[in-house]
């Protein structure tokens, strides 16, 4: 009976893997086709593996600038989110003050409310503050990422024994030394989790960039990809090549930090 169950599980998992992998393989192979091949026979292999669309994306359309913009926005958002959230989580989880539970509840509201439902008030607020483009976009990304980051880090902090901090205090460590030399190194798995989630969310965002980025030089990779999808004509070779190129940085970030992702999520959820 167990063997039958294991075989069924194996078949189900293989089916799920195919569901995930097939679209990526299909897009990758189609990116080497011409527009005529894609329209006439979308399911066939390319007649010739032609990399002209990849060359054109960099030489004619200038995708590199948009890639750099997305890397900058994602990196700044990750760094600021990690620093602010780590400090806020430590204050909520370890320091005793009257409004700690209220602050945690207030931050959790940010998880329950979809950020896209706040587009109108956000646009009004940004307009009144007279800030636009990249600075406004990064502020919105940071504000949207902090609640989830605080939730994960607070749960992880509660799983760290208090004896470690007590020993450091006995040795004469200040609050700053306690946080940066004792607590922060222990938060690495959760920080990696937050960094991956935040980076991917910012990298994949289209709606916020579409609304708040008005300058061509400030646009992200997702806006670059969207411009090739038209109502009457779509440049599929360029579109698919751009999608494949945009996936590569996400894969690199995930592969570099994936070993800490699961441990950060599970350990933080045990007592969170």
Figure out the total of helices. Answer: 13
Gap between N and C termini: 37 Å
User: What is the H/E string?
Assistant: HHHHHHHHHHHHH
Q: Which whole number gives the mean pLDDT?
A: 83
Descriptive notes:
With 272 residues, the chain is mostly helical. It has helices spanning 2-30, 35-40, 52-59, 63-94, 100-112, 119-129, 133-157, 162-170, 175-186, 188-204, 207-212, 221-226, 236-270. 30% of the residues are buried.
How would you concisely characterize the structure shown here?
The protein has 13 helices and no strands. By secondary structure, it is mainly alpha-helical.
SSE diagram, text form:
Layout lengths: L1 H29 L4 H6 L11 H8 L3 H32 L5 H13 L6 H11 L3 H25 L4 H9 L4 H12 L1 H17 L2 H6 L8 H6 L9 H35 L2
Helix pairs in contact: 1-13, 3-13, 4-7, 4-10, 5-7, 7-10, 7-13, 8-9, 10-13
Key structural traits:
about 270 residues; 13 helices; about 75% helix; disordered C terminus
């Amino acid at each position: 009976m167990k063997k039958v169950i294991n075989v069924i599980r194996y078949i189900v998992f293989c089916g799920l893997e195919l569901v995930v992998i097939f679209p990526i393989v299909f897009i990758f192979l189609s990116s080497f086709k011409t527009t005529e091949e894609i329209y006439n026979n979308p399911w066939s292999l390319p007649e010739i593996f032609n990399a002209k669309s990849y060359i054109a994306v960099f030489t004619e359309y200038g995708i590199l600038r948009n890639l750099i913009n997305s890397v900058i926005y994602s990196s700044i958002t990750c760094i600021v989110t990690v620093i602010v959230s780590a400090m806020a989580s430590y204050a909520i989880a370890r320091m005793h003050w009257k409004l700690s539970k209220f602050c945690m509840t207030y931050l959790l509201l940010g998880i329950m409310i979809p950020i896209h439902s706040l587009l109108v008030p956000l646009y009004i607020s940004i307009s009144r503050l007279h800030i636009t483009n990249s600075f406004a976009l990064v502020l919105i990304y940071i504000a949207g990422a902090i609640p989830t980051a605080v939730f994960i880090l607070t749960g992880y902090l509660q799983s760290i024994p208090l004896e470690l901090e007590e020993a450091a205090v006995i040795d004469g460590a200040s609050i700053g030394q306690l946080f940066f030399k004792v607590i922060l190194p222990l938060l690495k798995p959760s920080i990696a989790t937050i960094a991956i989630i935040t980076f991917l969310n910012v990298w994949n965002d289209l709606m916020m960039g579409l609304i708040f980025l008005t300058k061509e030089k400030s646009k992200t990779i997702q806006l670059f990809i969207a411009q090739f999808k038209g109502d009457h004509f779509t440049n599929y070779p360029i579109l698919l090549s751009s999608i494949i190129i945009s996936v590569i940085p996400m894969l690199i970030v995930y592969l570099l930090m994936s070993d800490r992702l699961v441990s950060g999520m599970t350990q933080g959820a045990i007592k969170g």
